[in-house]
Amino acid sequence: MFRFEKEQQILEIGGVRLGGQPGQLPTVMIGSIFYHGDKTVTDPVKGEFDKERALRLLRDDEEQSLKTGNPRMLDVNGLNGPALTKFIDFVADNTPSPILMGGATAEAKIAAAKFVAEVGLADRCVYNSLGMDTTGEELATIKEAGLKSAILLIFNKRWPTVEGRLELLRGKASQKGLLEIAEEAGLRSFLVDVSVVDMPDPGPAAKAAYLVKERYGLPSGCGPHNAVQMWRRGGRLDVSQIVSASAVANVAPIMMGANFLLYGPISQAQRIYLPCALADAYVAYAMRQQYRISPLTKDHPLFKIF
């Protein structure tokens, strides 16, 4: 294993800590709910959904988190403002976990930002996400709402490489970087999503996650599930292959130091938590032996799963 020379930030959002050197804190697992195509949603426009199914999914995800020691956040999506605010309100009432506000449009996320500020949920919520296409209205709303945490999505359409991703974070002479843009909006806690754009991309994404930590000391991560979904749609994977491919794709960034994973639909919690917890345990054991860096929590997978 390896230790970063750069001082590593440790953030706390809604009671969940993430970041630090490899082995200090377990990977934060982020499952998605109420996304486009989620069978839990019965009317995406009105924000109507099967509450019993939603509660069961939230409980199942929480159970896996408690079993493995991997903290969780919840990626809450919505087609429009009314739907997204309704979904956030439900999740906030039924779990203490931090919430990523993942609206399908800028309008939806703006409505959600205003809502969480009004009801006192701003400290528990993470704006998902801030990218180069984020509008001025969004940035103004983030500042007015007093949000402090955001996902910084470094997806570079023009230069979709490891260094292309990092260019968006730091900026260049002709363009502000996302770090500067986020700070100007009043944000203080940054989770850098290095993005996954095609089927073999979890490899470069894992390297980008490493470099974000090496150069900036910021918590980094990605959504490897996206790559497996693209592969799956090609019709070349059966169910057992999907499970194993998803495990490998999610574990790869952990071995490179990533701090969080957008692991896909929350319904996959039972399949994906254990492989990630096992990777965390292996990393922590190696770090303790080689660098005398120990877990910062007694609930680390190293102590929970063996």
List its salient traits:
alpha/beta; two-stranded antiparallel ribbon; 306 residues; 45% helix; eight-stranded parallel barrel
In words, what does this structure look like?
With 306 residues, the chain is an alpha/beta fold. It has one domain (26-278): Dihydropteroate synthase-like (TIM Barrel, Alpha-Beta Barrel), CATH 3.20.20. Helices cover 45% and strands 20% of the residues. It has 11 helices and 14 strands. The strands form 4 sheets. Strands 3-6-7-8-9-12-13-14 form an 8-stranded parallel beta barrel, surrounded by 7 helices. A two-stranded antiparallel sheet has the order 1-2. The protein starts with 9 loop residues before the first strand and ends with a helix. The relative contact order is 0.17. The mean pLDDT is 96.
